[in-house]
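Pilot study result, target chain (809 residues):
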Amino acid sequence: MTVLGLMRIGILSVGLSVLAACDSAEDRAEKHFEKGMELLQAGDTDRALVEFRNVFKLNGAHAEARKAYARAVQERGQLREAFGQYLRLVEQYPDDLEGRRALAELGIRIQNWAEVERHGAKAIELAPDDPRVQVIAAAMEYRRALQDDDGAARRAALADAIALKAALPDSQINQSIIIDGYLRDRDFTNALAEVDAAIAGNPDELPLYRARLQILEQMQDRAGIESQLRQMVERFPDDTPTKSLLIRYLISLGDLDSAESFLRAEFEEGVANDPARITLIQFLLGTRTRDAARAQLDAFIAEGTNTDRFRTMRATMDFEDGQREAAIAALDDILSNAPESDQKRDFKVIQAQFLLSTGNEVGARKLVEEVLQADPTMVAALKLRANWLIDEDKADEAINVLRTALDQSPDDPTVMTLMARAHQRNGNHELSGEMLSLAVEASNNAPEESLRYAAYLLSDNKPMPAESILVQALRLAPDDPQILSQLGRIYVQIEDWGRAQQIETTLRRIGTDQTVAEADGLKVALLNAQERTDDAIALLESLATENTGHIGAQVTVVRSLLLRGDTTEARQFLNGLLADQPDEPLYRFLDAAIMVANGDVDGAEGQYRALLDEEPKRERVWMELIRLLAANQREDEAEAALDEALQHLPEGRDLLWTRASQLERDGDTDAAIEIYERLYAQNSSTSIVANNLASLLVTTRQDDESLARAYTVARRLRDTEFPPFQDTYGWISYRRGDFNEAVRHLEPAARGLPRDALVQYHLGMAYLAVNRRAEALTQLQHTLELAGDDPRPQFQTARDEVERLSQGE
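Predicted structure:
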């Protein structure tokens, strides 16, 4: 046989063997699939999942195995793994309805609305008449209506959801739309009926009980609230947040004895039950005395159910009470003798927090890495790692870390709050708000989470939703001074004088120094808002004279008088204070401020310098002295004062800021950037420092590394409504080639800063980049009118572009 013939036979043989191997692999995959389905039907999910994994090794495109696997892990509550499996399915089979529908539904449950929109739209395209798809559509429309504050659209989506009840009576997504819709319409009767029907069909769904509790709170049914909470504790005995909520509610009623009795009944003497004992200690710390809590800790240590745990809690108390070295040493001793375990890793995280508080970040990071190397899912350690990543502007990494934490602890409001912070740092303002909202829900309207979400809403100029959140929190903590104070400020803002007065009365009734001071401040704000300035000043003067220690009121009196130009009365009032306390530094500082207002520059300078001779670390006094000198054209002396101030306060933030601004004006932008980097390293959460750093990087440097750094720092500024921030982010977008995004930010920036030539230049260049040539010409001509003979290179570029555009090039 010829060589050619031998080659033909060889090739044919190899081809047949490959085909046989493929058939064999597919056959084996099918057998694993069939075995997996049999195990699923028999209730042996663990072994079934193993069989399905074997299918994927042999045939990664086996659609039915992928669906079965995804359904199985979803039923177990492993929502993120199910999401990943369905995502793989639709990547391979884009028109698979089950996959698209499941992804949209899971996206709603885990609050990933970007995925809901993507997969929901495809599901609607594939099967618009499918009832489950129609529920997804209703949920998408309902959420859009809420975002747009469109009442008519929201009610239309609610009507769609109600119409779908007959087809899908057990759809939790549909139920949540209907319940929320009724609540927003204050239709509590129908809301309660809807929740009760949902609970009847899903008696083990804790979120439904929380929704019922929210309705009772809105109805102010106190007896019903307590009964509901006790029912929830009985049905969900392992749910710590529910127990905490019951305790909080009993405390709000002033029934501390019942709360303590409930907590003590949660454990038996000599029988280990750490969560119950820890909750009792926290209760004693919050409502009794620290001595009572210490005595109880000593009793638990003597009892011996978990000596290391309660010794650690005592060390924590010592640390909080200022005995830091002793506390760290005590915890070191505990760690050196404790066996490796989850508990020891928990103690290491506590020690890491101690070290962080004492400035030993290196030691803290080392402990956290040790913990995560042994247990990559340790939630407390993941929180610390995520916090560091956010501070380092590694928000995407932080989000991935926090997703792992949420998988382990899906109802942890602290994790959700950190997730909100990461999204905010990334510039995803909307996602940040959604996570803050979820944190409020997970915490059962706890004060801290409610105040944080209310602050977010107020930053978006949404006082009414913020008020609603705080009122819900107040029902369970009616004497919380922070909630009351924030509500009072909201009522002043929306000019609801009656309810502002009610808040003031409540704060006075509570009667602590803090709440009385808050009531006084609220009263002054109320009078000023009603344009009763004279009454406000009279009130402050009476507070200041009746209580000589009320320095806040005294300062506000002088400040108010100066603001309205009444320097004579301000001087008379302050002289009375100085007569009694001539050496009080704050009164002398005010004395200098009145001198400035009266034009007595030498007197004010002398007073400032005398205060600094006594204590050279008074940054506020240095700042006022520097401003006084600069305002009187004594620039060299102002710079010398700044140099001297920085010798005493090398990390003074206001002083460093002033030096950076000075360097920027003088054209030494590299030195200014270096200072802004120092300030940013001290506290990377300050948006104004981030803006100035990013702005200098993107406007004065042309290298890719500086542009990347500017973008990393400035991502949080996306979609802001503050013109300087809009300009910074818009110009970074321009430099990165995202011209439409640049225009979207630079147009409002130019409107907000109409006299800033550089901002106008940025918009002109952005118009040019998107081929809006006529607008670019007009904008750049306006830029040059503002710039005059400014020598900066941007304006020479503007001149060149105007000439080119004018010639029709």
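One observation from the pilot: The domain at 718-809 is CATH 1.25.40.10 (Serine Threonine Protein Phosphatase 5, Tetratricopeptide repeat). A full batch analysis is planned for the follow-on phase.
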